[in-house]
Amino acid sequence: MSMKNISVIGIGKLGICFSLTLEKAGYNVLGIDINQEHVDKINSKTLNSDEEGVEELLRSCKNFKASTSIKEALRFSDLIFVIVATPSLDNGRYDHSQVDSIIEEVKSHGTVNNKHFVVCCTVMPGYCEKVTEEISQYGYTVSYNPEFIAQGTIIKDQLNPDIILIGEGTKEAGDSLQGIYENITKSEPRFNRMSCTEAEITKIALNCFLTTKISYANMVGDIVKSYDGDPKVVLKAIGDDSRIGSKYLGYGYGYGGPCFPRDNRAFALCAKDKDMSALISVASDEVNDRHLDFQIEEFVQNNDNNEQVVFECVTYKPESIMIVESQQLAFAAGVARRGFNVKIRERKAVIRSVLEKYGDLFEYEER
Question: What does the pLDDT average to over 286-298?
Fold first, then answer.
């Protein structure tokens, strides 16, 4: 079967972006989703998306279609990407249940001849090894290929990555994946090929380094402020050293969103599984919390609570509409709870989410 045919199981926010990026590069793509309404909107090209570029690419695509049938996906291609949600459980580990259910259905369709099953979700280290044990006897190789993207700029990030991480089940599978990324990317990414488990660790460890850098910058900035200095001046000097660099070394809100906090917690857990301690990741979380307290206290001490405070952005980053673990929103809530009249001036979808979480703690105004 031609490797120009690619199946993508899971065409939500990330999966549809990947599917459209593949299609634009010349591949025939079949996307699978359990939601029939979502599938119908994709096939009729009427899907609305807040992710930049999705609606335009969907309207212009010719070789991307959607279905609810995993069986059809297995027939369509020898290369199957799995991009479904792995939300965090209460204990901090990733919930693999959606991938597990796909694996069970894949097994139910019997033996195949050398198909590549590629897990793209964030998973706990060792998970792909378990998947390999389950489906290798059915004719599948298993690889791990997560992406490093941010909500709001997914397509841009897919086209211009710094690195491509490939946990290859076999050299053949790794070669296929590298070839695809060489076709779809505009940048010249560095390819890092390794075992699945090494790649699983790399995915979360890389994000944990970023949380460490953010917490370090904010810790230094808080100390500088306590000496009546300017954090930007100090951090610029530190970042000018080529051993350190200026990226993620700014002073401001702490880290939040759907990836960084949970990856930090998961990394500490995977270390604990081997009787190790990820002390730096644990400390990064503590610094992140203390920095928020510092910001709230500083604001309260330096502002008059008779004046209304307006927040124009309370999502975890401006390009996104997500409020999950948003430090900006936590700061606004902290200020409101200290007696300030706080107005949230945001997009309709954001206001809806904030209302659900905080109710009448704030005043609201749509922008």
Answer: 98
